[in-house]
Structures are given as C-alpha cells and as structure tokens.
C-alpha cells in the first residue's frame, strides 16, 4: 500500500481544506462589512489568498503535525490567518514596487489603477496606492480577529498574537529598510543585506508559521524552529533574487527585472559590484534603478553574473545552509519530532523555479 506520508500527500490532504477555510473566513468578513469599498477589498484579498502555493499556511499545519498534533478546525483557521496576513503584505509590497503582476494576474495595485482610469478619477496611481495600503491593513486585522476568536486555549491565542505582532513589526521595518536602500546610492554591507533577508522574509515566512503550529503542542522549542526557519528563509530569498533576474516570466508570474528596476540591494547585486571592473560598474550604475529597463540591460546583468560565477557562488551558499538545516532537523528528531515531510519540503524550496 502506498504511504500517505510524503510532502505531496501532505499538501493534497490539507490544501483543499485550507483554501476552504480561507474562503469561509473572508466570505464571513464580506457579509459583516457594511461599506462597499471594504467588500470590494475583501473580494480581492480572497482572490489572491486562495491562488498561491500557501506555503506559510501549510507550514503551520506541518509544524503542528510534526509535534504530534491531530489537525482540526482551529489549526486550519490559524493557517488561514497566516495566509491572509501574507496576502496583505503582498498587496502592499506590489504597490511599493509598482508591480502590475502578481502570480500571473493583475496585482491589486494594478486592478485599482484600472478601476480609477475606468471611472476617470483624478489620480489613478495615487488611488491605486491608497487602496492597496488600506486593503493590506484589512487583511492583517482579520488575521488578528481569527486568532483571538478561534483558538480555544486563550493563553496559546495570546502567545500566537504576540509572535504575529512582533514579526509583523519586523517585516514592516525590514521593508522600510529595503525601500530605503533601493532609493539611496548607499551600498549596504553583506551583513546588512542578510539582516533584511532575516526580518523581511526568513522569520516571517518560515520561522513564524513553524512557531505558530508548534504552539499547539506543549513540547515545541522556539529557538530551534526559529533557526530552521531563518536558514530556510535566506535560501528562499536567494532563490527569489535569482528568479527575479533569470526567471521565466510565464513560470514566475512576475515581470522580469523588477529587482534591477527597483535597485534592490540583493546578495547577487552585492557580489556583482564586488567583482565588476570600473567599466562594468559604470554600466551597471546606468542599469540598476532605471525605470526604462530594456531586455538588453537585463541580459547584460545576467551575462556579468555568469561571467564571474556569482550564481554558482550563491548555490554553494545555499548548500551550506541546507547542511545546517539538516543538523537542526537531526536535533529535532532526537527530541522525538517527525521531520521527514519538512525535510522534503525544504528540498523542494531549494530547487524551486517559481
């Protein structure tokens, strides 16, 4: 008989119920929302939240199962709260990056601009930015409401809210830093870049869901879960940086070159400037931050990264972090936790193409 204990089986078991729970939460919010503008925003959240890979929500469930917890209604609700939070941040992130696509479809920011243009409003782009900011805030407030009203053990609910609140503050602070770096001529150090990675992506995308799921058990260890999440998150961000330059538009669902256009201070960019000669740096200065970026510009960056073996260097760094994750998982196994599916999940993240 085929085992139902693989990562794919885990996703197939839980993803439909997670999507159903997200949909239910947001439909109920729409029914209780008395203003039409709010209802429109909630529909956009629902459309976006149920369309992606649901990594963060599934990690909540995986962590709970890993700790021996039998998955039930309240676990799906916390996983849904994590995904709704993520959707809110994505909506605001797209607005800040002026991204018109998200997961292969028009971003919420772009949709609001289109609505403004169709209704001949005075400033469509300002309208799009304002609405995106508000819709993102609605998503975060719904997540807090879900946790506070769903988790039966109120001590655990308070602990979850505390972790979500702290990591949300860190995400926002790191996003502010990231935007600031993109607007400035200042080139941050490698450690400063990794700090943004930790607080903008790693802790929130991986450590937080693992912790939220673990809280349902009395034997979870925050420090170890946080370390696993941090290493995995940095791997994820490095892969995201690579996809932002080398990725196929049709596979990633985003317009290529956005990190170059926004002058994002990534590890790839750091090593690129560290290796480039004066003539190349002059050319790169004209490319990074250029709103009128061409396909030729992107190809120049790709060629220069390959020329100096920077992609290979990043892959070596990813492998080192995978080894560290393996050590942490072994420690978890020694504590009696079931980590096979998480290990498979981590392997898939390290090889992702979108």
Question: Any descriptors?
Answer:
354 residues; 77% helix; mainly alpha
Number of domains: 1
Radius of gyration: 21 Å
Shape: globular
Architecture in CATH? Orthogonal Bundle
CATH level-four homologous superfamily name: Farnesyl Diphosphate Synthase
β-strand percent reads under 5%
Whole-number mean pLDDT = 91
Biggest sheet descriptor: 2 strands, antiparallel
- The CATH class label is Mainly Alpha
Question: Helix segment count?
Answer: 16
Distance between the termini: 33 Å
Strand order of the largest sheet: 1-2
SSE pattern: HHHHEEHHHHHHHHHHHH
Task: Describe what you observe in this structure.
It is a single chain. This protein is mostly helical and 354 residues long. It has one domain (7-350): Farnesyl Diphosphate Synthase, CATH 1.10.600. Helix content is 77%, strand content 1%. It contains 16 helices and two strands. The chain has helices spanning 7-32, 36-49, 55-66, 73-97, 108-118, 124-150, 154-183, 190-214, 222-246, 249-252, 258-261, 267-275, 278-287, 295-307, 310-334, 340-350; strands at 101-102, 105-106. Strand 1 and strand 2 form a beta hairpin. Helix 4 packs antiparallel against helix 8 and helix 9 (222-246) runs antiparallel to helix 15.
Strand and helix map with partners:
Layout: H1 7-32, H2 36-49, H3 55-66, H4 73-97, E1 101-102, E2 105-106, H5 108-118, H6 124-150, H7 154-183, H8 190-214, H9 222-246, H10 249-252, H11 258-261, H12 267-275, H13 278-287, H14 295-307, H15 310-334, H16 340-350
Antiparallel strand pairs: 1-2
Helix pairs in contact: 1-2, 1-3, 1-4, 2-4, 2-6, 3-4, 3-8, 4-6, 4-8, 5-6, 6-7, 7-8, 8-9, 9-15, 15-16
